[in-house]
Amino acid sequence: MNDRKTIDLEQGWDFMQKGITKLKNILEGLPEPQFSSEDYMMLYTTIYNMCTQKPPHDYSQQLYDKYRESFEEYITSAVLPSLREKHDEFMLRELVKRWSNHKVMVRWLSRFFHYLDRYFIARRSLPGLNEVGLTCFRDLVYQELNGKVRDAVISLIDQEREGEQIDRALLKNVLDIFVEIGMGQMDHYENDFEEVMLKDTAAYYSRKASNWILEDSCPDYMLKAEECLKREKDRVSHYLHFSSEPKLLEKVQHELLSVYATQLLEKEHSGCHALLRDDKVEDLSRMYRLFWKIPRGLDPVSNIFKQHVTTEGTALVKQAEDAASNKKADKKDVVGLQEQVFVRKVIELHDKYMAYVNDCFTNHTLFHKALKEAFEIFCNKGVSGSSSAELLATFCDNILKKGGSEKLSDEAIEETLEKVVKLLAYISDKDLFAEFYRKKLARRLLFDKSANDEHERSILTKLKQQCGGQFTSKMEGMVTDLTLAKENQSNFEEYLSNNPNINPGIDLTVTVLTTGFWPSYKSFDLNLPAEMVKCVEVFREFYQTKTKHRKLTWIYSLGTCNINGKFDQKTMELIVTTYQASALLLFNTSDTLSYQEIMTQLNLSDDDVVRLLHSLSCAKYKILTKEPNTKTITPTDHFEFNSKFTDKMRRIKIPLPPVDEKKKVIEDVDKDRRYAIDASIVRIMKSRKVLGYQQLVMECVEQLGRMFKPDVKAIKKRIEDLITRDYLERDKDNPNIF
Fold this sequence. Notes:
By secondary structure, this protein is mainly α. Helix content is 66%, strand content 4%. Residues 387-617 form the Cullin family profile domain.
């Protein structure tokens, strides 16, 4: 090694130049044998030797420069001229070929000059051979041509958008150059190509959209928009860089959807309203998919949905109103049938649009909210003087009682009850519903009208889940009471059979209830007929044996009684209320009685006596005859037993029309609400100590909102009342602070 000859620069470079020329010829496709291992070794060794000679013969720096010059010389002499003479697609093909050749050349030359990379460059921290090679191409070729290349690519993309076939592989290769030239950075791709391409895309779709919006119906327009978005996504996967996808789709969505959102949704015969009206489920799903992607895009859709549902619901209310007023005009009282139909229709409406929310709008919270708000609007309207709370309670009653107007299978009943409870969520006066429901439930339980105990308990469970335990505790108590009452009755019968000397004289069934659970009933001290007094005493004694501290209050207004009437034709059994029985039994001792005498002997109020006597002398079954024979009862009438009465049946039931309890229910609820508001105000003030009027009202409304919407005036009144009762006081200086 020591006696090797020193190679001077000229001589060594001549040898290298031969190798480089051979490489260029191979790249240009001229007939030239491939490099053999020996050739490669010789070239590498020459460089090695020239770099390891003692100074001043260490030619590392000069070789490093010559390495770069050989690229520059090749590019200016061969590459650029061949690119400058071509245009459009041909230029793109040439560029792809030249770039791939250039990469091969860099690979070979950096191998020959490899020794430089290992020591010289590493020590001086100069750019590596590979980088120098690529930089030459970037500075000489790319800088000159990138604008021309970009325009050619964009024009091809536009041709493809118009439906022409293009060479996607070519575009992929060209765009790879933009990425590779950045050597790990994306700035060349983004600044030199993507930015302009996005602008062009926006302009292209803006032109398209402005025509489509005029020509197409909303569903057709959406189909086109969806197709365009799909194609653009496809375009990214075939030749654009993946980082372009979100930016590209954003542009397309903006031009096709954001810009024309309002026009599109409100198109006269095909916009969102029309799609909802005509149940175009697929188009609605598409609308959701498209508008979901744009910021705040779903807001207008959900607003239209809300308007639509509100309109449909309000139409149902109007329809029920009209039907009810026609019915009043006809005077035919088909009991609550209209209301029954109305609630059914509301349930169907809810089912239909709930399915839309779940399917078309993939359960999106915005649409759940819209549906809820819409139903809250018309569910709280009420129909011809009946609040929706009452209608719902009546609807449940019809389903749950024997012989109701609804003939449903068990599954159907369960399902319907489930839906009623869902509707209840939209009603603001839940407490009113509870009160009506309790009244109806009481009638079902006490008069043995309930069709199925399972269903009664099942709806209570559902109500409990929806409105909390406090809501149903009384109702659950009522259902339990009945079970206990039955047990109690069998104990009573056992007691009688064990003590034969105690004889009530007539068969007696007593239902013992817990006062707190049941609606309040007026209890009159009716003067019972002697026959009944005895059995009441017997039961009282029996009950005393069980408990000492419970007081029994007898509610005769809910009792029933079977009595025998001995008429001329035949003896008949009459099923009557306890009140009616007491009145009829008076005629065992007197032939005629005046209104006043009956009233005194029974010890009842005017209203009750009128109802009673009307049911016995002016209704279908005339058990009593009255003087004068008119249709109404007056305090001067006289009554006697009608022995001529007869009927084809052996047993007849003589109805006593119930008092209309609606007013009382509403009064009761109002009273309860006053207490609830009081309690809420005191609770809030206890925790806050000092609070302004507005805040207090707001918190109060929020606390009570689950049961009813408190009226601000009512709250104000309760605050005043609590101040007079010293629960709270006004601030000395500021009357609005408590």
